[in-house]
Specification:
This is PD40 domain-containing protein. Pfam families: PD40. By secondary structure, the chain is mostly beta strands. About 5% of the residues lie in helices and about 50% in strands. It is built from 2 helices and 23 strands. The relative contact order is 0.15.
């Protein structure tokens, strides 16, 4: 079960690198949306080009925040692993719409969980309970453990979309209600085909854009969150993934495979008018809060760096490398907030 499941994420990484070498409460609504997230001084920092707002990403298995022209590690610790001497990794952090809470993934031996923590770095709490019974690294432990990946906040901050293999051999799309403290599957899209990847909400909260395997390729679909009905909106010869809905609802940024390479593209939200945005091998596009830029992880000299590209009037321009020699985690996610 685990081998098949992880294939969705691993294939993306191989494709990108190939060209170079082969309990919780809902957040309160009165918290500020632009306060700086807490970071710690660990004797190192990243510097580079200046950006507005805050970008969250993963580096070396820890969560980092980029503000202005500096990146610092966030004050969130992974805790002890179920395997002595190992360290769990933290990834795919995203800030709630009101700026009060961070959702993120904590990945350990053969399982991962969805966690929340206050934006001030206090009160970490686990939502899912995916660790299997028995001894770690035993067959039973591995078979009964589950994965959780790619949390995405609904625009009203009451629901978190995420991916899990609960009840299937592949990752499928689920919604966690913070008001009701429970989860429900939205659709079986991708089950038995290879699973699904990173979801992204429409600004009105009625739909999700998601990558899903069908007939051996991943394509971008739009999914109705109320009834699970879906529609495929890409037809890429080699596959498409990592959708990101623009703040004005008009566009979706995504990644297209081109053989052993990948490229950043932008299309209308209905799938029409696809436009090449950057030929840099790419992952995890994230729109700026104003919708005038797209950040993404780009492969440079065999390692991932932070890039941006400007977007205005349906046209992209000015590809800029923000970090140098940062070596960001390829599956760590990327989110942009005020």
């Amino acid at each position: 079960m685990k081998t098949r499941l992880i294939a969705f994420a691993v294939i993306f990484i191989v494709v990108l690198i190939g060209a170079f070498f082969i309990f919780s409460t809902a957040p309160t609504k009165d918290n500020p949306t632009s306060s700086a997230l807490p970071t710690i001084n660990v004797g190192e920092k990243l510097t580079g080009e200046s950006l507005d707002g805050q970008l969250l990403f993963s580096r070396g298995g820890f969560l980092w925040a980029w503000r202005g022209d500096t990146g610092l590690r966030m004050a969130i610790e992974p805790g002890a692993s179920v395997i002595a001497g190992n360290q769990p990794i933290l990834l795919q952090a995203t800030l709630s719409p009101n700026g009060a809470t961070i959702a993120y993934i904590r990945q350990d031996e053969s399982y991962s969980d969805l966690w929340l923590i206050n934006a001030d770095g206090k009160n970490p709490r686990r939502l899912t309970n995916n660790r299997g019974p028995g001894l770690p690294r035993s067959q039973g432990f591995s078979n009964d453990s589950l994965w959780a990946f790619n949390p995405a906040w609904s625009p009203d901050g009451n629901i978190i979309a995420y991916l899990t293999d609960r009840g299937t051999d592949d990752l499928t799309l689920w919604l966690w209600s913070l008001k009701n403290n429970n989860a429900a599957r939205v659709t079986m899209l991708g089950a038995g085909q290879g699973g699904v990847g990173k979801p992204s909400w429409s600004p009105d909260g009625t739909r999700l854009a998601i990558a899903a395997y069908q007939n051996g390729k991943s394509q971008i679909f739009r999914v109705n969150v109320q009834n699970g009905q879906n529609a495929q909106i890409t037809e890429s010869d080699s596959g498409a993934y990592d959708p990101a809905w623009s703040p004005n609802a008009q566009s979706i940024a995504y990644v297209v495979r081109k053989g052993n390479l990948s490229e950043l593209w932008v299309m209308n939200a209905d799938g029409t008018n696809p436009l090449l945005a950057a030929s840099v091998p790419s992952r995890y596009p994230a729109w700026s809060p104003k919708g005038d830029k797209i950040a993404f992880l780009g492969l440079k000299d065999g390692a991932f760096e932070l890039y941006t590209v400007d977007f205005a009037g349906g046209v992209t321009s000015n590809i800029k490398q923000i970090t140098k020699s940062a070596h960001l985690d390829s599956n760590g996610g990327l989110s942009w907030s005020k």
